[in-house]
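Onboarding guide, step 5: your first structure request.
Type a short instruction followed by the sequence, for example:

Predict the 3D structure of this protein.
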Amino acid sequence: MIMRAGRKLRTFAVCLGAAVILAGCVGKGKAVGEESDGPEGLRVVSEMQLEYAHEFSVSLCEGGYALIDIGEDGFLLVPEGAKVPADTEGRTVLEQPIENIYMAASSAMDLFDSIGSLDRVKMSAYEEDRWSLENVRQAMERGEMGYAGKYSAPDYELLAAQECDLAVESTMIFHSPRVKEKLEQLGIPVLVERSSYESHPLGRMEWIKLYGLLMGDYPGAEKRFEELTKGLEDLKGENSGDGPKAAFFSLSTGGWVTVHKPGNYFSRMIELAGGRYLFTPEDLNVEENALSTMKIQLESFYEKAAEADVLIYNSTIVGELGSLEELLEKCPVLSDLRAVREGRVWCISEDMFQHTTAAAEMIRELSAVFDGTAQDEMGYLYRLR
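The system replies with structure tokens like these:
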């Protein structure tokens, strides 16, 4: 493993010696102040309060240190100018300030932008024309952010030359384990973010708190999260079960329809907004895997969609539709559905899923669709006519 002295982030895979003698620290799930098997010399003073996210946890320690756990990976955040404990217990050390980030997780980019830290992201795994986030496109046009190769084939020489401090990867990196290993050999820590595993739509957004902590402005990130979710208090409870039934789908080739699984983040959006997701696990014979979508035959979809009060077309898979006629050209049989005949067919904008912070607004728009107050053109939803 190549270690570069003076780098702001370093990976420690083994114990390096005796620790600074202060107190005991705690690992994941420990009580505040309790001694544990974490890096010696630290003491936890509080835990990051998370309302919706379950895929990461953070223990905040004295002196600005923090212990971060994401899946099986552990990190030790070290504040600027502070000493790195000699014994890190195998945690990846992240030293602030964290700059020169390589972003390979598209869902995280909007969160960095939302907290004013887009200038820390210097390299992208997506070329300019693949971004729908205007600030990202402009940064790449100005040369402030460059393309550094896709996640499965990054430009290692460029990352090294740019002194990349951190690679933020999606779970797709697990399909290319050698890439992760190579990055770490170059001394580039890899943070595999798991926001896509969050079942609650606001859980994805709550990762903004973690990124705010890394960027040195945890209070600001907390405030931003509160701003984004303001006004949703009355939508946080479970649906009463008598709201409009909604199907969320896209048409696939070969007579198949792609639907989201019940209980995933978009079906939860529907429920939080006062609707009922059309499909149950029994309807779909859902398989247990990490995929949020599945394909069913058109006949099976049509049978259930006959019950739907609202149809919502998922344009993020195959592109936006311009009209109801365009949808029916793709699948004429849908013209017989009640939601189609009564004009309750909607489409989400193609760029919605890169806008991670849009979850709260999307819930508001869905609520307007279900209670009949929606405008034909909204921020992320528009009616097909």
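Each response can be followed by summary notes, for example: DSSP finds 14 helices and 18 strands in the chain.
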